[in-house]
């Protein structure tokens, strides 16, 4: 068996028919294996999410590239087009994560990518309001499984204390997509009239084709699980498998409906859903309306596309920084609250300041605080669920509910040029996330103390973990990350 010693080493006893051998793995050896996982897993899943976020958020770039005029998106029509994506997206996430567990990730994830890539490509043919709505509904259905699926997928490769920085790297692709999307949209706009299509139609067409091509390659290069990964040596594979087993205290990994119900009826699931909803509402507000907000500060449409780049680059930098610090100190709540406060300062500046330069600085601060919250909170939510299936369902429920917040984001930025309703609503959502985060920290600390007392009172230790393997986070051996 393998265990984490007080000094941070991994001790493994390997027995065969000829002899017994005890091997001690140092922390440096384990970090070397982690780096190997990082190299083979993170760049690939980050690319997939970059394409996903680019495809769902490019509607904002297309809007100021002429789509709103050509398709006659007057009044709240653009808001409806943006919003309808999130409804099927939210409700399809739990079934998708269950399917990911039942089928191989290397088959399920590329398949849904092909589907949404085709939908995105065909959106270039939409030249009516009704057509855009139908396309966005299908885009929401097909794209639903990617983000919760990859978040869950990463939790199957990394310990709970290592996953926040990896989700930060993965999610930073969203900020890169925001920055790259502005540059790409600026360039593609120059294709106006080619093939009888407007520049904004070419944005949908070219980005959709790229998604389909990458999805085709994914079938051959995506790894399923540590136990089947070909890039490990036999010794490395054994180390990773046992370390992950140790991290989850031997809780169940097989599929059973009761684990689904455990997640659904756990009040802590709904606390995390509330936290995340406030955070993702904010992120989608920035992603969908950053070009519009910047344009309303007095810049031309072309300059607005380019001026969104620094906003998302700043968000990328803080996402990585906060994610690594959160893992280093194995702490979630304090870093989450700190990020929220930074974002709130940015939105307060946007709400109160009329000068273009000052307001633009507020937009940068808002993104710097908002984007890190997603990685930290998803790592926190995943660590609050015991067992693979329960974790997958919880993550899907959290992400699904958060994406319903995207519906809210779509309808609050309706009062240009200052957007007081939008900024004020976001400040309210972020305040709710802070309140619920404080409650979660208090509650997890209370439950940990209760479990420690029970273990001491009843003499429960790791040798008895098989007795509790189906209990999920109700197991007395399970500990919450604070």
Automatic annotation (TrEMBL):
- SUPFAM superfamilies reported for this sequence: MFS general substrate transporter
Any single Pfam family the record assigns to this protein: MFS_1
What InterPro entries does the record point to? MFS, MFS_dom, MFS_trans_sf
Q: Which residues cross the membrane?
A: 41-59, 79-100, 112-131, 137-155, 167-188, 200-222, 273-294, 306-326, 333-352, 358-380, 392-414, 426-444
Domain Major facilitator superfamily (MFS) profile: start-end pairs? 41-482
Q: Which GO terms describe its cellular component?
A: membrane
> What start and end residues bound the annotated signal peptide?
none
UniProtKB keywords: Membrane, Transmembrane, Transmembrane helix, Transport
**In its UniProt entry, what is this protein called?**
Major facilitator superfamily (MFS) profile domain-containing protein
Species of provenance: Hypsizygus marmoreus
